Amino acid sequence: MSSEEPHLFRLPRPLRLESGATLPRVEVTYHTYGRLNAARDNVVWVCHALTANADVLSWWPGLFGAGCHFDPADWFIVCANVLGSCYGTTGPLTPDPLTEQPAYQHFPLLTIRDMVAAHEALREHLALTSVHTLIGGSLGGQQAVEWAVQRPELFENLVLLATSARHSAWGIAFNEAQRLAIFADPTYETATPAGGAAGLRAARAVALLSYRSPDAYDRTQTDSDESKLDDYLASSYQRYQGDKLVARFNAYSYVTLSRAMDSHNVGRRRGGVAAALGRIRARTLVVGISSDVLFPPQEQQLLARHIRGAMYAEMDSHFGHDGFLIETAQITQFLERFYVQSYVH
Which pathway, per its entry (predicted)? Predict the structure, then answer.
Protein backbone atom coordinates (compact mmCIF):
# COMPACT_ATOMS: atom_id res chain seq x y z
CA MET A 1 0.00 0.00 0.00
CA SER A 2 1.06 3.54 -0.67
CA SER A 3 2.05 5.70 2.28
CA GLU A 4 1.77 8.91 0.26
CA GLU A 5 -1.12 11.22 1.08
CA PRO A 6 -3.23 12.59 -1.79
CA HIS A 7 -2.68 16.15 -2.97
CA LEU A 8 -5.31 18.69 -4.00
CA PHE A 9 -4.82 21.10 -6.90
CA ARG A 10 -7.23 23.92 -7.72
CA LEU A 11 -7.26 25.14 -11.30
CA PRO A 12 -6.28 28.82 -11.42
CA ARG A 13 -9.30 29.76 -13.53
CA PRO A 14 -12.79 28.48 -14.39
CA LEU A 15 -12.85 25.55 -16.79
CA ARG A 16 -14.87 26.01 -19.95
CA LEU A 17 -16.15 22.62 -21.06
CA GLU A 18 -16.41 21.29 -24.59
CA SER A 19 -20.23 21.49 -24.26
CA GLY A 20 -20.02 25.26 -23.72
CA ALA A 21 -20.82 25.09 -20.00
CA THR A 22 -18.32 26.39 -17.43
CA LEU A 23 -17.22 24.95 -14.11
CA PRO A 24 -16.41 28.01 -12.00
CA ARG A 25 -14.08 26.15 -9.65
CA VAL A 26 -12.30 22.88 -10.31
CA GLU A 27 -10.25 20.88 -7.83
CA VAL A 28 -8.25 17.80 -8.76
CA THR A 29 -7.09 15.14 -6.30
CA TYR A 30 -3.89 13.39 -7.30
CA HIS A 31 -1.18 11.10 -5.97
CA THR A 32 2.53 11.09 -6.68
CA TYR A 33 4.99 8.33 -5.87
CA GLY A 34 8.77 8.36 -5.98
CA ARG A 35 10.93 11.34 -6.85
CA LEU A 36 11.85 13.28 -9.94
CA ASN A 37 15.42 12.53 -10.94
CA ALA A 38 17.93 15.29 -11.70
CA ALA A 39 17.18 15.14 -15.42
CA ARG A 40 13.40 15.23 -14.76
CA ASP A 41 12.96 12.48 -17.34
CA ASN A 42 11.51 9.67 -15.19
CA VAL A 43 7.84 10.74 -15.14
CA VAL A 44 5.14 8.10 -15.58
CA TRP A 45 1.59 9.49 -15.80
CA VAL A 46 -1.28 7.06 -15.23
CA CYS A 47 -4.81 7.73 -16.47
CA HIS A 48 -7.32 5.63 -14.54
CA ALA A 49 -10.48 3.85 -15.68
CA LEU A 50 -14.17 4.45 -14.92
CA THR A 51 -14.56 3.88 -11.16
CA ALA A 52 -10.92 3.89 -10.06
CA ASN A 53 -9.14 6.63 -8.12
CA ALA A 54 -5.81 8.43 -7.99
CA ASP A 55 -4.11 5.81 -5.80
CA VAL A 56 -2.77 3.62 -8.59
CA LEU A 57 -0.75 1.46 -6.23
CA SER A 58 -4.02 0.27 -4.69
CA TRP A 59 -5.75 -0.81 -7.92
CA TRP A 60 -2.92 -1.80 -10.29
CA PRO A 61 -0.75 -4.04 -8.07
CA GLY A 62 1.70 -6.17 -9.96
CA LEU A 63 2.42 -3.38 -12.43
CA PHE A 64 2.89 -0.44 -10.04
CA GLY A 65 4.63 -0.71 -6.68
CA ALA A 66 7.82 -1.93 -5.05
CA GLY A 67 9.46 -4.64 -7.15
CA CYS A 68 7.06 -4.06 -10.07
CA HIS A 69 7.82 -2.76 -13.54
CA PHE A 70 6.88 0.76 -12.47
CA ASP A 71 8.64 0.91 -9.12
CA PRO A 72 8.50 4.25 -7.25
CA ALA A 73 12.17 3.71 -6.43
CA ASP A 74 12.90 4.36 -10.11
CA TRP A 75 10.01 6.43 -11.40
CA PHE A 76 8.11 9.59 -10.49
CA ILE A 77 4.54 8.34 -10.89
CA VAL A 78 1.55 10.69 -11.15
CA CYS A 79 -2.11 9.64 -11.14
CA ALA A 80 -4.96 12.17 -11.01
CA ASN A 81 -8.59 11.45 -10.21
CA VAL A 82 -10.72 12.34 -13.24
CA LEU A 83 -13.10 15.23 -13.50
CA GLY A 84 -16.64 14.11 -12.59
CA SER A 85 -15.53 11.36 -10.21
CA CYS A 86 -16.32 11.07 -6.50
CA TYR A 87 -12.80 10.56 -5.15
CA GLY A 88 -11.85 14.14 -4.45
CA THR A 89 -12.01 15.79 -7.87
CA THR A 90 -14.87 18.14 -8.75
CA GLY A 91 -17.96 16.15 -9.67
CA PRO A 92 -21.75 15.94 -9.27
CA LEU A 93 -21.60 15.74 -5.46
CA THR A 94 -19.22 18.70 -5.10
CA PRO A 95 -20.98 21.79 -3.66
CA ASP A 96 -21.27 24.63 -6.15
CA PRO A 97 -19.24 27.65 -4.92
CA LEU A 98 -22.22 29.97 -5.52
CA THR A 99 -25.15 27.91 -4.23
CA GLU A 100 -23.18 25.66 -1.83
CA GLN A 101 -25.33 22.78 -3.13
CA PRO A 102 -24.20 19.82 -5.27
CA ALA A 103 -25.49 19.70 -8.85
CA TYR A 104 -26.35 15.96 -8.69
CA GLN A 105 -28.16 15.01 -11.93
CA HIS A 106 -27.78 18.55 -13.27
CA PHE A 107 -23.98 18.41 -13.38
CA PRO A 108 -22.90 19.53 -16.87
CA LEU A 109 -21.95 17.13 -19.62
CA LEU A 110 -18.27 16.22 -19.56
CA THR A 111 -16.14 14.81 -22.36
CA ILE A 112 -12.79 13.04 -22.46
CA ARG A 113 -11.30 16.29 -23.71
CA ASP A 114 -12.51 18.06 -20.56
CA MET A 115 -10.79 15.42 -18.44
CA VAL A 116 -7.59 15.94 -20.40
CA ALA A 117 -7.87 19.72 -19.89
CA ALA A 118 -7.82 19.15 -16.13
CA HIS A 119 -4.82 16.80 -16.46
CA GLU A 120 -2.99 19.38 -18.56
CA ALA A 121 -3.60 22.11 -15.98
CA LEU A 122 -2.19 19.83 -13.28
CA ARG A 123 0.85 18.99 -15.42
CA GLU A 124 1.58 22.69 -15.84
CA HIS A 125 1.19 23.19 -12.08
CA LEU A 126 3.73 20.41 -11.46
CA ALA A 127 6.09 22.00 -14.03
CA LEU A 128 6.59 18.72 -15.87
CA THR A 129 7.90 19.62 -19.30
CA SER A 130 8.09 16.04 -20.53
CA VAL A 131 6.57 12.66 -19.64
CA HIS A 132 8.54 9.48 -20.18
CA THR A 133 5.46 7.25 -20.30
CA LEU A 134 1.74 8.02 -20.46
CA ILE A 135 -0.30 4.89 -19.74
CA GLY A 136 -3.99 4.07 -19.43
CA GLY A 137 -6.51 1.31 -19.99
CA SER A 138 -10.19 1.51 -20.98
CA LEU A 139 -11.47 5.03 -20.09
CA GLY A 140 -7.90 5.78 -18.99
CA GLY A 141 -6.65 4.78 -22.41
CA GLN A 142 -9.19 7.10 -24.02
CA GLN A 143 -7.77 9.97 -21.99
CA ALA A 144 -4.21 8.97 -22.84
CA VAL A 145 -4.72 8.78 -26.59
CA GLU A 146 -6.63 12.08 -26.62
CA TRP A 147 -3.86 13.80 -24.65
CA ALA A 148 -1.17 12.36 -26.94
CA VAL A 149 -3.05 13.73 -29.95
CA GLN A 150 -3.33 17.17 -28.34
CA ARG A 151 0.28 17.40 -27.14
CA PRO A 152 2.42 15.20 -29.40
CA GLU A 153 5.68 16.80 -28.25
CA LEU A 154 5.07 16.11 -24.57
CA PHE A 155 5.15 12.31 -24.38
CA GLU A 156 8.09 10.05 -25.13
CA ASN A 157 6.20 6.76 -24.77
CA LEU A 158 2.49 5.97 -24.91
CA VAL A 159 0.94 2.73 -23.61
CA LEU A 160 -2.70 2.06 -24.49
CA LEU A 161 -4.48 -0.99 -23.11
CA ALA A 162 -7.95 -2.30 -23.99
CA THR A 163 -9.10 1.04 -25.38
CA SER A 164 -10.08 2.76 -28.61
CA ALA A 165 -9.81 5.82 -30.81
CA ARG A 166 -13.58 6.27 -30.71
CA HIS A 167 -16.11 4.71 -28.37
CA SER A 168 -18.10 2.16 -30.34
CA ALA A 169 -21.85 1.94 -30.82
CA TRP A 170 -21.65 -1.34 -28.85
CA GLY A 171 -19.92 0.38 -25.95
CA ILE A 172 -22.36 3.30 -25.98
CA ALA A 173 -25.26 0.82 -25.95
CA PHE A 174 -23.82 -0.94 -22.89
CA ASN A 175 -23.45 2.41 -21.13
CA GLU A 176 -26.97 3.48 -22.03
CA ALA A 177 -28.37 0.21 -20.68
CA GLN A 178 -26.62 0.95 -17.39
CA ARG A 179 -27.92 4.52 -17.30
CA LEU A 180 -31.46 3.31 -18.00
CA ALA A 181 -31.16 1.06 -14.94
CA ILE A 182 -30.13 4.08 -12.86
CA PHE A 183 -32.88 6.32 -14.28
CA ALA A 184 -35.47 3.61 -13.50
CA ASP A 185 -34.64 4.09 -9.81
CA PRO A 186 -37.01 6.89 -8.67
CA THR A 187 -34.57 7.98 -5.96
CA TYR A 188 -32.18 9.23 -8.64
CA GLU A 189 -34.33 12.36 -8.99
CA THR A 190 -34.28 13.06 -5.24
CA ALA A 191 -30.83 14.68 -5.54
CA THR A 192 -29.37 13.16 -2.38
CA PRO A 193 -25.95 11.49 -2.04
CA ALA A 194 -27.54 8.02 -1.99
CA GLY A 195 -29.91 8.77 -4.87
CA GLY A 196 -30.07 6.07 -7.53
CA ALA A 197 -28.27 3.48 -5.41
CA ALA A 198 -30.54 0.59 -6.41
CA GLY A 199 -30.19 1.60 -10.03
CA LEU A 200 -26.42 1.75 -9.71
CA ARG A 201 -26.44 -1.76 -8.27
CA ALA A 202 -28.28 -3.00 -11.37
CA ALA A 203 -26.05 -0.94 -13.66
CA ARG A 204 -22.96 -2.61 -12.24
CA ALA A 205 -24.48 -6.02 -12.91
CA VAL A 206 -24.97 -5.00 -16.54
CA ALA A 207 -21.43 -3.63 -16.78
CA LEU A 208 -19.88 -6.86 -15.50
CA LEU A 209 -21.19 -8.69 -18.55
CA SER A 210 -18.98 -6.44 -20.68
CA TYR A 211 -15.97 -6.54 -18.33
CA ARG A 212 -15.65 -10.31 -18.16
CA SER A 213 -16.09 -13.13 -20.68
CA PRO A 214 -18.37 -16.18 -20.89
CA ASP A 215 -15.34 -18.37 -20.22
CA ALA A 216 -14.54 -16.41 -17.03
CA TYR A 217 -18.07 -16.91 -15.71
CA ASP A 218 -18.03 -20.61 -16.65
CA ARG A 219 -14.75 -21.10 -14.79
CA THR A 220 -15.71 -19.31 -11.57
CA GLN A 221 -19.50 -19.09 -11.32
CA THR A 222 -20.77 -22.49 -12.45
CA ASP A 223 -22.60 -24.35 -9.67
CA SER A 224 -21.28 -27.76 -8.70
CA ASP A 225 -24.71 -28.66 -7.27
CA GLU A 226 -26.63 -29.66 -10.38
CA SER A 227 -29.89 -30.02 -8.42
CA LYS A 228 -30.12 -26.26 -7.77
CA LEU A 229 -33.24 -24.47 -8.96
CA ASP A 230 -32.48 -20.97 -7.67
CA ASP A 231 -29.86 -18.68 -6.10
CA TYR A 232 -27.11 -19.64 -8.51
CA LEU A 233 -23.49 -18.62 -7.99
CA ALA A 234 -23.64 -16.32 -11.01
CA SER A 235 -26.71 -14.58 -9.59
CA SER A 236 -25.17 -14.00 -6.18
CA TYR A 237 -21.96 -12.79 -7.84
CA GLN A 238 -23.84 -10.10 -9.75
CA ARG A 239 -25.58 -8.94 -6.57
CA TYR A 240 -22.31 -8.94 -4.63
CA GLN A 241 -20.49 -6.85 -7.21
CA GLY A 242 -23.39 -4.40 -7.37
CA ASP A 243 -23.35 -3.98 -3.60
CA LYS A 244 -19.57 -3.43 -3.63
CA LEU A 245 -19.83 -0.56 -6.11
CA VAL A 246 -22.75 1.09 -4.29
CA ALA A 247 -20.65 1.10 -1.11
CA ARG A 248 -17.84 3.11 -2.75
CA PHE A 249 -19.35 5.10 -5.64
CA ASN A 250 -22.47 7.08 -6.54
CA ALA A 251 -24.98 7.04 -9.35
CA TYR A 252 -24.44 10.67 -10.39
CA SER A 253 -20.73 10.26 -11.03
CA TYR A 254 -21.41 6.97 -12.79
CA VAL A 255 -23.80 8.64 -15.22
CA THR A 256 -21.41 11.56 -15.75
CA LEU A 257 -18.38 9.39 -16.44
CA SER A 258 -20.17 6.89 -18.67
CA ARG A 259 -21.44 9.79 -20.80
CA ALA A 260 -17.91 11.15 -21.02
CA MET A 261 -16.74 7.74 -22.23
CA ASP A 262 -19.41 7.81 -24.94
CA SER A 263 -18.07 11.19 -26.13
CA HIS A 264 -14.65 9.78 -26.95
CA ASN A 265 -13.71 10.37 -30.58
CA VAL A 266 -10.21 11.63 -31.33
CA GLY A 267 -11.30 12.40 -34.89
CA ARG A 268 -13.99 14.91 -33.90
CA ARG A 269 -13.26 18.22 -35.67
CA ARG A 270 -9.83 16.88 -36.70
CA GLY A 271 -10.61 15.35 -40.06
CA GLY A 272 -11.34 11.86 -38.78
CA VAL A 273 -9.70 9.21 -36.61
CA ALA A 274 -6.82 8.37 -38.94
CA ALA A 275 -5.78 12.00 -39.30
CA ALA A 276 -5.94 12.56 -35.53
CA LEU A 277 -3.91 9.46 -34.69
CA GLY A 278 -1.37 10.54 -37.28
CA ARG A 279 -0.49 13.48 -35.03
CA ILE A 280 0.93 11.24 -32.30
CA ARG A 281 4.73 11.27 -32.07
CA ALA A 282 5.23 9.15 -28.94
CA ARG A 283 6.65 5.65 -29.30
CA THR A 284 3.49 3.63 -28.76
CA LEU A 285 2.56 0.21 -27.40
CA VAL A 286 -1.03 -0.88 -27.95
CA VAL A 287 -2.28 -3.91 -26.01
CA GLY A 288 -5.43 -5.85 -26.83
CA ILE A 289 -7.09 -8.72 -24.99
CA SER A 290 -8.25 -11.79 -26.90
CA SER A 291 -11.48 -12.20 -24.89
CA ASP A 292 -12.43 -8.51 -24.54
CA VAL A 293 -16.02 -8.01 -25.70
CA LEU A 294 -16.26 -4.34 -24.64
CA PHE A 295 -13.13 -3.14 -26.47
CA PRO A 296 -12.46 -6.02 -28.88
CA PRO A 297 -8.94 -6.42 -30.30
CA GLN A 298 -9.82 -4.89 -33.66
CA GLU A 299 -10.19 -1.54 -31.92
CA GLN A 300 -6.62 -1.72 -30.61
CA GLN A 301 -5.40 -2.95 -33.99
CA LEU A 302 -6.92 0.17 -35.56
CA LEU A 303 -4.98 2.33 -33.09
CA ALA A 304 -1.74 0.53 -33.90
CA ARG A 305 -2.37 0.77 -37.63
CA HIS A 306 -2.76 4.56 -37.61
CA ILE A 307 -0.20 5.56 -34.94
CA ARG A 308 3.17 5.87 -36.62
CA GLY A 309 5.50 2.99 -35.70
CA ALA A 310 3.21 1.57 -33.02
CA MET A 311 3.86 -1.88 -31.60
CA TYR A 312 0.80 -4.11 -31.13
CA ALA A 313 0.63 -6.93 -28.58
CA GLU A 314 -2.32 -9.13 -27.66
CA MET A 315 -2.67 -10.96 -24.38
CA ASP A 316 -4.32 -14.35 -24.27
CA SER A 317 -6.67 -14.11 -21.30
CA HIS A 318 -10.02 -15.53 -20.25
CA PHE A 319 -10.66 -12.52 -17.98
CA GLY A 320 -12.13 -10.35 -20.74
CA HIS A 321 -11.81 -6.57 -20.53
CA ASP A 322 -10.70 -6.75 -16.90
CA GLY A 323 -7.58 -8.53 -18.07
CA PHE A 324 -5.77 -5.20 -18.32
CA LEU A 325 -6.00 -4.93 -14.53
CA ILE A 326 -5.31 -8.59 -13.80
CA GLU A 327 -2.78 -9.92 -16.31
CA THR A 328 0.10 -7.80 -15.05
CA ALA A 329 2.73 -10.46 -15.76
CA GLN A 330 1.84 -10.47 -19.45
CA ILE A 331 1.71 -6.68 -19.55
CA THR A 332 5.14 -6.50 -17.92
CA GLN A 333 6.57 -8.79 -20.60
CA PHE A 334 5.08 -6.61 -23.32
CA LEU A 335 6.49 -3.47 -21.71
CA GLU A 336 9.97 -4.94 -21.36
CA ARG A 337 10.02 -5.93 -25.02
CA PHE A 338 8.57 -2.56 -26.06
CA TYR A 339 11.16 -0.49 -24.22
CA VAL A 340 14.04 -2.62 -25.53
CA GLN A 341 12.80 -2.34 -29.12
CA SER A 342 12.12 1.39 -28.76
CA TYR A 343 15.62 2.20 -27.66
CA VAL A 344 17.31 -0.20 -30.09
CA HIS A 345 15.63 1.62 -32.95
Answer: Amino-acid biosynthesis; L-methionine biosynthesis via de novo pathway; O-acetyl-L-homoserine from L-homoserine: step 1/1
